[in-house]
Fold each of these.
Amino acid sequence: MVILSKTDQDGASLSSEAIRRRIRTGAHDGHTAGLAAGKLQCNLAILPEAYALDFLRFCQRNPKPCPVVGVGDTGSHMLPTLGRDIDIRSDVPRYRVFKEGALVEEVTDITSHWADDLVTVALGCSFTFENALIRAGIPVRHIEMGRNVPMYRTNIDLVPAGPFGGQMVVTMRPLKADQIDAARAISAKYPQAHGAPIAIGDPAAIGISDLSAPDYGDPVDVKPGEVPVYWACGVTPQNVLKAAKLPICITHAPGHMLITDVAEDAETTIYQDPNQNEKTNKE
Amino acid sequence: MVILSKTDQDGASLSSEAIRRRIRTGAHDGHTAGLAAGKLQCNLAILPEAYALDFLRFCQRNPKPCPVVGVGDTGSHMLPTLGRDIDIRSDVPRYRVFKEGALVEEVTDITSHWADDLVTVALGCSFTFENALIRAGIPVRHIEMGRNVPMYRTNIDLVPAGPFGGQMVVTMRPLKADQIDAARAISAKYPQAHGAPIAIGDPAAIGISDLSAPDYGDPVDVKPGEVPVYWACGVTPQNVLKAAKLPICITHAPGHMLITDVAEDAETTIYQDPNQNEKTNKE
């Protein structure tokens, strides 16, 4: 369940940079759903450089659950390619710190954990295509019900890299049969946010035994005539990181994402400062 | 200029795997344009692991010139994520070997150069969107003229990472004004192959002084009423690698690409063996 505290009721009207400033100062430490509309939000993985090459290889080989949208310099706590003045130590509302695969702490600031060998990897999240579905008139059940999205472990093997591997976690959204083609086409436009569905229909076919008992998040109603549609999920890399039992690894807390300054529908996820970028905006 | 020798006149009808086998045995060491229609072809960069994390960061930050489509394990000469039985030491028709930034050799096999610390990075190439343009009835001038695409250094700064940085190289294709929107939409569908144009129109705006004198490749005619359209180019990472003066770095020779088993229009560039992949094909 998402921990709700100091959630910014007015956040939807604030810019991404203004919200990050409130997060940095502690004025907002709640979830980020619906904040900074139109801006890319990200899953977060911070890990020692010794594992970063393998982790990037792992993400490259599993782009649907692990779409890399930003990578920091080793030891740098700034992420200039995702926005102005992003300090990854303080600009995410809530973090989880893992040691040897065990959760040791949930905190709102990781400055005390920062080290010169840490590398930040930002990964796209499903908020992006959910927003696009809703704009297209396709309702998203867990949002309608005010719940977390249901997430399930599957038997879909990931392509391994170094110590990273395992099976994919998926989210499920029930859709009417005549909405599926449109939902597929819309989500496919966002490869940086899990892209098109991984599977449609029979949960047993991908190793899910009971849709009413998700492994993470909350169950949602699947109404008569609706078909469960499964997308790759950002919990996948979190589980993979935990299973690899790294000496240290830091992620965001579920629902408490990094809000970037990159537009959700930008062709690439690399932030271009409008004041410093005249010559590459010729189109 | 492309070096033409032992070019496979019948190659267009052979499967990607069959062509690689001919390349491996030395039966084909010419360019790969037009071979294995519908299959993704790749630029190649092989470099020591010590530089691989920075190079992947560089590519992530510059996805239009440097779209990563495959990364090998350190020391492994196989590339299973791009196809069946790809041995990167022998399955590219022609390689260039650089030491400290200087070209030392052009060869058809790099087995003697292989080392346990080398990492292979495969990058998308413009063949993919050119094929799509032609299928859509938009002619590509340098192909019509039987020439290499004209390529130009620009003043567009790349986002640096570690020792890698510099300015972007672009290709240019002249189009009629009423073809530009379609060409943009078509190429934007292939983010793994440089995506939408980087710039359109005035060459001086991106630092090109004379369109008739490309820095690489051949000049092409720009007819009255046509507009030059510029795409990010795979020579960019090659120049960046040369400038970084790595102890060793191996690339393909221009036009002599890695032919993969991945479909050009696949949603991701990760090869899935049809015999081993039943459960992820539920869609």
Note: Helices of chain A lie at 16-24, 49-61, 127-135, 141-144, 180-188, 235-243.
Amino acid sequence: MSGRNLYLSNIPVEEALDRFRCALEPHKRPPRAEEIAVIDALDRITVAAVFARDNSPLYDSAAMDGIAVKSAATHGASETTPLTLQHGDFLPVDTGDTVRPPFDAVIMAEELQEAGEGNVIIRQAASPWQHVRPVGEDIVQGEMLLPSGHKVRAIDIGVLLSGGITRVAVRSRTTVAIIPTGTELMEPGDARKEGGIIESNSRMLEALVRQGGGAPARLAPVADEYELIRETLRDAASQFDMVLISAGTSAGREDYTAAALRELGEVVVHGVAMKPGKPVILAIVSGKPVIGVPGYPVSAYLAYETFGAVALQALSGGSEVGMSLVRATLSRRLVSSLKHREYVRVKVGTVGGRLIATPLARGAGAAMSLVRADGFCVIEQDCEGIEAGTEVDILLCRDLEDLERTIVSIGSHDLILDLIADELPKHFPNTRLSGTHVGSMGGLMALQNGEAHIAPIHLLDEASGIYNTPLLKKLFPGRQMALIKGPAREQGILVQAGNPLGIKSLADLTRVRYVNRQRGAGTRVLLDYKLKEQGIDPAAIRGYEREAATHMAVAAAVQSGSADAGMGILSAASAMGLDFIPVGKEEYDFALLAESLETEPIRALIAMLKHPVFHQKLEEMGGYQIVGSGEVVRIDC
Amino acid sequence: MSGRNLYLSNIPVEEALDRFRCALEPHKRPPRAEEIAVIDALDRITVAAVFARDNSPLYDSAAMDGIAVKSAATHGASETTPLTLQHGDFLPVDTGDTVRPPFDAVIMAEELQEAGEGNVIIRQAASPWQHVRPVGEDIVQGEMLLPSGHKVRAIDIGVLLSGGITRVAVRSRTTVAIIPTGTELMEPGDARKEGGIIESNSRMLEALVRQGGGAPARLAPVADEYELIRETLRDAASQFDMVLISAGTSAGREDYTAAALRELGEVVVHGVAMKPGKPVILAIVSGKPVIGVPGYPVSAYLAYETFGAVALQALSGGSEVGMSLVRATLSRRLVSSLKHREYVRVKVGTVGGRLIATPLARGAGAAMSLVRADGFCVIEQDCEGIEAGTEVDILLCRDLEDLERTIVSIGSHDLILDLIADELPKHFPNTRLSGTHVGSMGGLMALQNGEAHIAPIHLLDEASGIYNTPLLKKLFPGRQMALIKGPAREQGILVQAGNPLGIKSLADLTRVRYVNRQRGAGTRVLLDYKLKEQGIDPAAIRGYEREAATHMAVAAAVQSGSADAGMGILSAASAMGLDFIPVGKEEYDFALLAESLETEPIRALIAMLKHPVFHQKLEEMGGYQIVGSGEVVRIDC
């Protein structure tokens, strides 16, 4: 009985896994990538962040079926003084149709009365931009649609296409060679031979690899001859990302696998303290993981699930996420009608040990809100609404663990948030940033309510001319607060490329069509401050009441020609190819409770803000001042 | 604004679903089937029960690496009287190698000492059949491998191939046509046109259908022209199993979908009380479900998930089952070694409101135990064992709801259990039978411990000559019990086809190689009773100590020639083409607590035992007496 290898080791499962992981560490290489059609990308994993090429909607468009009108021409219409609009003064539109100048509002079909000869009667004036979805409302050109390392879902496919993306770079599938060994093996369906064993394990392994997202290649069975086994292993390890070799792992006369692996590379573990599955081999050949899977079917199954699936997952990245139901505290009051069951998209985060659900935009057109959502809060039909602070059921479509390492950011929008969201998990594994854009004041409100970890703000105190600190002191009296300094940024007027209307300063805004930011946005505070300084009456600016929610939405409105000017940051202008007239520098910082500074995700954020890679990307974008980024200012309010 | 369809209904979600289900009910048809290679069958759903064509192992085979010996020739070997086996008196074998007569036992390599000239020294006698896996130990020819309506998993592929099955009949994938509509639609990547909208919803729907196991076919976008839409719908409904038509569902001027559907078939619901998603249309054309999916992406997503996914599931059958962790009470003591972490396969059932986990066979070779298992109980390495009655974590691989409607049967084996397991869910939706075969006495024990709902038994009381009732009275004193009568069955001696050894009665067993059933099996009790009656000494029967666990395992041993005779039922003989010498009729009944009679699954079992389809299958198998099957006998013990 010479040549037998009677004694296997008996290493505990976790230790075996650790040894295998450590041994594989130096052989890690960047994932192979391929570019594929978006429509084929379901369940594939992005290799880089994907940014929108187009706005969605592409143009200002009707949000309802009805007629497009000139809002100015509807002034005075009321129940007592109905107004007849002549054919030509309006345009019938269906939902999604473009609304072009001179039209700037939509009146719903239900509110119209036919007056013959193609005329209609209206009984209410239309306010500017009512029932109009502004260009880029859902997706703004240049905005990040998906981060890198993201497993593409059905809804992501819709959003990518809407954002003008038809091809996407994804990780190549991990290729896995499966080698059955044994002289006695017969293929299923072969004529029966005395002493033969039907080879079925490799087919089970093939199915398991496929289920795990890998690309299995089952090779022909190899007879129990040392050189044959060795050469097959050598070839497989050079051609595939991973190798499973079936049977030949125990201590029998013809069990050559371990010896061959030792000759070709390193046997990390041979024999694990598990039953069934003990004689598993964990090895490395040419830097590739090779797993010797025992021959008994139950052992093979458990050895694969314990070690093979883990190795495949490590090589392929991305994790499977199912839907799950969790209880979370609602951060904002939700009102709903008794007329329907409502599905409200929410962001979910762990703040102060509690799961907090924050409602997102409720428009049906907001496809990006589906991509951003962590789950749904369902408001049943017999419920009129839910108060803030109530515990609700959330149908979660992300991993709970993931959420616990997610920084919840609510506040002012800046392109650097996309940048941080993409870079953070690359440098600090599993740490994510989830951003909701509601303006600076909205962010501080969320911070007060314990709904956010950080609030990105840029709020000028008009009295002192100082940014952020005065407001914090006013809103958080007696509390220990902090500001993490972001890169200071340049604000200015965004105008069409070439500046055809010759806009030079804020004073010129009175003679063009302006698009403003929403109330509470720092950019709007800055505008008001500057207007007051220069004695300009906001009422003199056409479009002062027209609101867009982000810098990019302002830029999109200007680029599409539906407005002539708007205020925003240089990086938004650059991203959309617009001209930029500087108005001033401002401090864009992250406000938070001082106690949060010690948490791991926040420490990662601070490190990220100081990271050379981040600084380099800022340089490329332009308009940011790197000095001081990531510095912490503690504030006793 | 004529032709508008301003008013949609506002039906609650559940009611809309119910209406749609009811309207589809009369159009139900048997699923289309196709035969495919087993290796391609992952996640596909069987249309019929699949029965093993081969035994596994195919022959008696070595369970260890070592030598095959004649057990009789090892008598007397001990530490003090070692025995030298000459070359030729033994055969070196590896695990899986065939063990052929005259060899009938295996000695492990670790226990051998080389003696030169090819001889070996042994220090312990080998008992007959030690370390030999009998033919059919894992899978017995004719045994049911998978029931109908089963979603094929990776482990099932292994078992099917091991059982000699290379092709399997599965349901054809449900085909789903996806029709985008809208004159304004542009294909992603097309040159931008004024007022155009990038068509992306159909691609999201395509991915969702694919995730649900359907076969999507996305058709070319159709312009907003009534006749075009109607004809496209008509063709799609005739060619596909299901149709999704995107947009054109609200009340706009050009929303022709509802009108076209009304002309072609029936609009069951138009307008559901959900938000987003309200304008969804649920219709039937040519008996096929047609869903009008709203145009806004979020509405489209929710409408599909709420109605489309349900319809697809109803057409495709089979439900997705993930792994989940549950707490269950262990029904038997589990001993494990400190040497390893052990994965014990368990059956799980709800008995008396408690989840009960019953350990299955622990052999690594028992692939069928993987198929039969409902989950795993993991015994950590630092644990020596777990007492019966302890609550343990079970990694469940089946649906909990499923388990609640599963009858847990522990006791004697009969082929009719396979038959019931296959037919039950066809006639009583979601009701299943899960059988563990441990013999009649083992079954009554399980019933006493609250681990089983029913115990199939055939136990002869030697004193009275009466079946089952006397034993129940003895084992369950003072309790209200019941017997559900099974079909009476014929027991006899199984011999090779043509009866080459001329066996005529039990007396002939003393001159052939016999294979017995395990202690506690009703068949063994019957044998002992008959032997005593006829004054035959069991010690005179060679192989009386050799045990097989089921009728089919006995039949497999006889068919393969490793035994000449065994006792069992006629149907087992027929299934394996063996001859059968009748010994007597016996009563095979289902024992249970009287209180269980009122539960729904047990009522379904009783109805099944009386069902004409069941009786017809019994006739085909032969050897059963149908009269009285399903009758209930209440017993006050």
Note: DSSP finds 16 helices and 40 strands in chain A.
